[in-house]
User: Which sequence fits this backbone?
């Protein structure tokens, strides 16, 4: 067992007022921390003497400077104990303390697991935890973000983990193409009692389609449905667009039918993707059918179809008209 830390538990008599001892203020501690010649032992000795003073007032800015200073010098154990004791002083560690502390841990090269345990020893509030996690993810230190989530025990934190705590990291993994990490985090969500929403599943489906296969994305879709998560129009747009681009039009149409059965309504973006699929596969009569459906659904005004709009979807308007005339013999009703 290591030696006790004297700056935490005063073990000697406190100086009496008027006893000739100079009072050590928070400003004195801050000056010592800012002094480039100071070392952790000197700063801790000064802090020890300060907290033993009768009536010493603990101030958060002192801890905001002291703790990152200690972490930069790799005094992790001392920092962790101080963090655990801060609430006893009446202070509440928030983002103003946790963000610079995380930055110091990263700068010092503290291993992710150790840094996560250190940060969690502060018992952050729900808002402080969210801010800290978001800061780490935005800083691209995904290993630390993952450790922070894995070691976050709701019973100890005092609040439950929610979708937002996982979703940002899942999306970040997906943008980097780290499929396995994203899948593992989705599994961890389930173990933590958190159900991924459609947006989170969509991010993973897109990544699997792009970095593995469309069939892999479709298997994720089936898993998503089996877990009781209702796909949205983006889910279907993603899968149908990629299936159609691979020439799997029948599968695309079957998925469209399933989408309607599930009560998911198309939007303009979905129709654009569907038209692109049919154009890619030269199914111009189907393009016309979709355009007519769009007009019925109110996505096209009563003035007819603008050539510019159809060109944006990747097909010449003359081809659409020719296809329709050859099949039906008239285009007049459709264009009105």
Assistant:
């Amino acid at each position: 067992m290591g030696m006790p830390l004297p700056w935490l538990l005063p073990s000697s008599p406190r100086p009496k007022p008027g006893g000739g001892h100079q009072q050590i203020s928070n400003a004195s501690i801050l000056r010592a921390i800012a002094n480039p010649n100071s070392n952790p032992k000197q700063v801790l000795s000064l802090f020890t003497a300060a907290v033993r003073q009768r009536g010493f007032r603990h101030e958060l800015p002192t801890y905001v400077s002291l703790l990152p200073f200690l972490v930069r010098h790799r005094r992790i154990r001392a920092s962790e104990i101080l963090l655990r004791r801060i609430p006893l002083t009446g202070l509440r560690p928030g983002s103003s303390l946790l963000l610079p502390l995380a930055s110091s841990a990263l700068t010092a090269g503290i291993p992710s697991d150790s840094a996560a345990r250190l940060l969690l020893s502060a018992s952050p509030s729900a808002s402080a935890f969210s801010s800290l996690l978001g800061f780490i993810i935005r800083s691209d230190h995904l290993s630390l973000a993952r450790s922070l989530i894995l070691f976050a025990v709701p019973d100890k934190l005092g609040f439950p983990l929610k979708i937002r705590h996982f979703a940002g990291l899942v999306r970040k993994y997906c943008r980097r193409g780290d499929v396995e990490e994203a899948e593992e985090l989705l599994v961890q969500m389930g173990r933590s009692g958190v159900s991924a929403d459609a947006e989170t599943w969509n991010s993973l489906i897109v990544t699997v389609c792009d970095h593995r296969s469309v069939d892999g994305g479709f298997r994720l879709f089936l898993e998503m449905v089996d877990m009781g998560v209702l796909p949205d129009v983006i889910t279907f747009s993603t899968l149908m667009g990629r299936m159609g681009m691979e020439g799997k039009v029948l599968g695309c149409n079957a998925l469209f039918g399933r989408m309607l059965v599930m009560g998911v309504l198309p939007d303009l973006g979905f129709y654009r993707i569907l038209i692109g699929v049919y154009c890619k596969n030269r199914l111009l009569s189907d393009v016309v059918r979709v355009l007519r459906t769009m007009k019925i659904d109110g996505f096209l005004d009563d003035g007819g179809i603008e050539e510019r709009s159809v060109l944006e979807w990747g097909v010449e308007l003359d081809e659409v008209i020719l296809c329709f005339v050859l099949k039906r013999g008239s285009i007049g009703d459709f264009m009105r």
About this structure: The radius of gyration is 30 Å. Residues 268 and 299 are 7 Å apart (CA to CA). Confidence is low (pLDDT under 50) at residues 1-20, 325-336.
